[in-house]
Amino acid sequence: MKEELKQKISEYLATHFYLNLATVSPEGRPMAHTMAYVSEDTTVYLATNRSTRKVRNIMHNQAVAFTVDEDDPDWFDMQALQVEGFAYIVEDEGEMRRIGEIMVGKFPIIADMPPNPDTILIKIVPDIVYYLDYSVEFGHRETATF
User: Fold this and answer.
1) pTM, two decimal places
2) Three-state SS for 75?
3) Backbone angles phi, psi at 138, to 5 degrees
4) Domain limits for position 9
5) H or E element that contains 87
6) Widest CA span of the chain, in angstroms?
7) What pLDDT is recorded for position 71?
8) CATH number (domain holding residue 69)
9) Cys-Cys crosslink for 33: which of 12, 21, 37, 136, Cβ 3.0 to 4.6 Å?
10) What domain count does the chain have?
11) Residue 69 predicted with pLDDT over 90
């Protein structure tokens, strides 16, 4: 994988706030979830309540996909990420603390929120990332595998 492409993906993730997470229910139904996230290089972290459908889906099938994109009507300037990967529930206390600090830095509003014992942290490790950049050429897409 080209290091330059990995760096572009990392920077894109770091400069955006929301993703659209796709999971599949145990019954085989696809579901989409809009989520705030933080990233560390190309790994993404999400905080959510342990009783959500997305957590139930991930416990059944760790394969997930998500997109991060622009809200721009000009098709010829569009940039986006299409990511396929695997989701894990974070159990390590040190990792939880480190990511919690990153979350407060990106979303300062959460610093004043009371702790919720039902909140868990999901880690998504990419397997394949498609970096779309239509400013290069309409339909331009680069692929990174991890």
Assistant:
1) 0.95
2) helix
3) -60, 125
4) 3-145
5) strand 79-89
6) 48
7) 87
8) 2.30.110.10
9) 21
10) 1
11) yes
Q: Are residues 65 and 126 in contact, defined by beta-carbon separation less than 8 angstroms?
A: no
- Tell me how far the alpha carbon of residue 93 is from its chain's centroid: 20
What is the rounded CA–CA span in Å between residue 58 and residue 74? 35
pLDDT band at 115 (very low <50, low <70, confident <90, very high): confident
Cα–Cα distance measured from residue 61 to residue 53, given in angstroms and rounded to the nearest whole number: 12
Residues 2 and 9: their CA atoms lie apart, in Å, by 11
| Distant-in-sequence, close-in-space partners of 61: CB < 8 Å, separation ≥ 6 | 23, 24, 26
C-alpha 97/C-alpha 75 separation (Å) is: 40
Taking only the tens place, the pLDDT of each residue in 7-42 is 999 999 999 999 999 999 999 999 999 999 999 999
Checking if the pLDDT of 1 tops 60, the result is no
Please name the helix (run of DSSP H) or strand (run of DSSP E) that holds residue 54, with its range, or none.
Answer: helix 53-60
